[in-house]
């Protein structure tokens, strides 16, 4: 897994030219990339959500499209349209921005549910169906979405089916005092921080090879059982209406394998699962008190479950590694 580790370090150094600090958040972003997943960046305005997403896209030599989601955005604005060419008298297809390999869905919750639903097929099945014709998307394909959880005017909450498509949901948070000072120093020297200042350091072939290698990371049977036990505990918890689905357990498995490869390891540790549990599962929980969903209550429930279920011992892991 050394090649995956080196690729990740190269991308992290490149992103660090624009993004100050946020090492853990960058690790999560790269984990989603290596696991062929999508990311929802959720935080207040001005914390660098769009800049982080654009910095990753600029570091990859992949086609990139940014879509500014608004209430009047239509599904055809994303998928594309068939138009009549008067010169040859035939209909032609003009692909929309979803046919790029890296798609930034900026302020995704400002689009109507009808427009949001046009992302479901492409995020899960990597294809787009238009007028009875199905067109596959190029690999790798990744959606980076941002949303502001504070401003509710003119927004449409993402439905559970949409949230479940995101491998990871994360918050950037405010920078520390030292990071804030470094941001100001860089701004004073360069005028403003721009994602365009990063260099393209990874090709599509390198990313695809790294994704395939991540799928070969070994995980002990007892750790697989540990993931299932955690999921079952969310389904039977008194405060949850919907627990973690099989898709959620598969997401945690893929993310754990990618995170292990990111660290240069060919095997998953219990700490990998525990480190990724909240960003991979919190947004998939549906609580009985719906108004508490997304308020941090889900994180407390998962932390409580994680503390109550014993982690497999080292001896058990050694006997169960494949």
From TrEMBL:
Sequence ranges assigned to domain ChlI/MoxR AAA lid in this UniProt record: 233-304
InterPro entries, per database record = ATPase_AAA-3 (IPR011703), CbbQ/NirQ/NorQ/GpvN (IPR050764), ChlI/MoxR_AAA_lid (IPR041628), P-loop_NTPase (IPR027417)
Q: Where is the ATPase AAA-3 domain?
A: 38-168
Q: Extract the SUPFAM superfamilies matched here.
A: P-loop containing nucleoside triphosphate hydrolases
A Pfam family the protein falls into: AAA_lid_2
Highest taxon in the source lineage? Bacteria
Q: Which GO terms of the molecular function aspect are on file?
A: ATP binding; ATP hydrolysis activity
In terms of Gene3D superfamilies, this protein maps to: Magnesium chelatase subunit I, C-Terminal domain, P-loop containing nucleotide triphosphate hydrolases
Keywords in UniProt for this one? ATP-binding, Nucleotide-binding
Similarity section: Belongs to the MoxR family.
Put simply, this protein is called AAA domain-containing protein
Q: What is the lineage of its organism?
A: Bacteria, Bacillati, Bacillota, Bacilli, Bacillales
